[in-house]
């Protein structure tokens, strides 16, 4: 089978400039470049170390449905659900998110690991997972 590795995830947002600022302020992603994909579709590639995140602003795009903003209800809609990133310490991460005024949608603590979902400035869900040692 061909080898491959993760390159980036992407989300559509209603305000590209606001989203670039949010991903920088809350998660530390820096703007790598802005570009146009097609008429009426502006995009930006953000980077944090080896991670990349692509944002799209499309003229006339439909708003994010309310169910897509709630982790338990989002599962009831087919399609891509979210990206998940690993964190070393969930509690420390949650403290940092509180300081940065992030919208925490859900915190889960299970024997196999803990995690949380936050919403970006457009309501898109992003998961952060802390796995137990060993």
UniProtKB/TrEMBL annotation:
Spell out the molecular function terms from Gene Ontology. Answer: metal ion binding; methylmalonyl-CoA epimerase activity
Annotated ranges, domain VOC: 5-131
The source organism is Novosphingobium piscinae
Keywords noted in UniProt: Metal-binding
What is this protein called in UniProt? Answer: VOC family protein
Task: Provide the coiled-coil residue spans.
Answer: none
**Which Pfam family is one of this chain's hits?**
Glyoxalase
GO terms of biological process kind: L-methylmalonyl-CoA metabolic process
